[in-house]
Design goal:
The chain is built from twelve helices and no strands. With 398 residues, it is mostly helical.
Length: 398
């Protein structure tokens, strides 16, 4: 008991000293924290990258195991893990290449078409303004000096240069070359030897933390891994299915920019609720420049496909995997978007799902304990009443 008091007093004294030092040397402490985070950045980024890549890698690894079992071979171990990891990178590269190859030509085509439609409908618009009594002389002079084809080429070139500038700025800002290299190496080591690392982490946890607390931490970590894995895999499958359905539906109705709208829909599907409005709005705006009637048809087809996806595909693929009610999903999107933008909208859904499951377990546990306590009290009451009844019978017999 004396040792515990001494330990508490030492913690209180040293904690007070550290708190006073932090208040009086605030800038120094902040510099230390940022320096420590800078040193740990490759490890943190590698851990996040390994966590994200583990989802498709596990799926590919399970498929390879089933395939090898059917063929009568029992290939397993690090060889199968490395093969799954290589196939994961190949799949990612193929998906990115397909998106780029489909998106850039369609984007160039849409910009050129929009410029052509503006040039074609501009005289009618000027006549309309003239009929309203608006002087369009200055507007006609300005428009006559503009070469729309050259402007379209400048817009495409400017967009490409802007993307390159943004990538260059990001690379220069966070020193992405060295950090990405070390992070990728760390992620590869984590993914290849994840069972051993998991076992070592569990041993450290139970060695230095009391068992009830360690059990709770281990349960939260396992639950987080399962929920995030199911969410990412379900969201990826849902995005692919929605993109394919949108492309097929728009192609059947001969709506222009079908592939562009389908790719935008698949990419924006990772942003719940808002992503659908963004992709639909961009698609309708592009088609509106070509044919207003087809823009209305595109809006109707898009909403029908979105309704089918929300009613029949999303609940089976994503909703059942996360297990979160629609109200809490909306709250997660709003809170995550307000705090961290688009990434917050995406990743706050599984975070809210983890919190929801933990809260539900806590509430159910409390209710069960109260029921057990009430049952024990009722049993004690029944036992006391039976004893009192037996005593009264004994007294009556005497």
């Amino acid at each position: 008991m004396d040792k515990q008091k001494e330990r508490f007093a030492a913690i209180l004294v040293f904690g007070g000293i550290a708190f006073y030092f932090g208040l009086t040397h605030y800038n120094t402490v902040i510099l230390w924290i940022f320096g420590l985070l800078g040193l740990c950045t490759p490890a943190l980024v590698g851990g996040v990258l390994a966590f994200l890549l583990n989802v498709p890698m596990c799926g590919i690894e399970n498929l390879l195991k089933k395939l090898f079992r059917r063929n009568g071979s029992a290939k397993s171990g690090k060889g199968l893990r490395i093969l799954s990891l290589l196939l994961t990178f190949v799949c990612i590269i193929v998906v990115v290449a397909m998106v780029v190859l489909m998106l850039i030509p369609e984007l160039q085509k849409s910009i050129t078409s929009v410029m052509y439609q503006v040039q074609k409908n501009l005289p009618g618009f000027i006549d309309y303004l003239y009929g309203l009594g608006i002087d369009t002389t200055m507007l006609e002079k300005q428009l006559a000096s503009i070469d729309l084809k050259e402007l379209a080429g400048q817009m495409i070139t400017g967009a490409t240069n802007m993307v390159g500038t943004v990538v260059g700025a990001v690379s220069a800002t966070i020193s992405v070359l060295g950090t990405a290299l070390f992070s990728l190496v760390i992620a590869l080591y984590i993914l290849i030897d994840k069972e051993n690392l998991s076992r070592q982490t569990k041993k450290l946890l139970y060695a230095y933390v009391k068992q009830p607390v360690a059990d709770r931490i281990y349960h939260v970590g396992t639950l987080t891994r399962e929920v995030f894995g199911k969410f990412l895999s379900g969201q990826s499958i849902e995005a692919v299915v929605l993109g394919v359905l949108m492309f097929v539906a728009l192609s059947l109705f001969r709506i222009p920019y079908a592939s562009l709208i389908a790719v935008l829909t698949a990419v924006c599907a990772f942003v719940p609720y808002i992503g659908a409005f963004i992709s639909c709005g961009i698609g309708v705006a592009l088609i509106l420049m070509v044919n207003p009637l087809q823009a209305v048809l595109c809006l109707v087809v898009y909403q029908v496909v979105q309704f089918i996806e929300n009613q029949f595909i999303y609940p089976r693929v994503v909703g059942s995997s996360v297990g979160l009610e629609p109200l809490w999903t909306v709250i997660a999107v709003l809170v995550g978007g307000e705090a961290f933008g688009i990434l917050g909208m995406i990743f706050f859904i599984p975070v809210m799902a983890v919190i929801y499951i933990l809260l539900k377990e806590s509430v159910n546990g409390r209710i069960e304990r109260r029921k057990a306590a009430q049952q024990a009290e009722s049993m004690d009451t029944i036992l006391e009443e039976s004893i009192e009844a037996m005593d009264r019978e004994d007294e009556e017999e005497q």
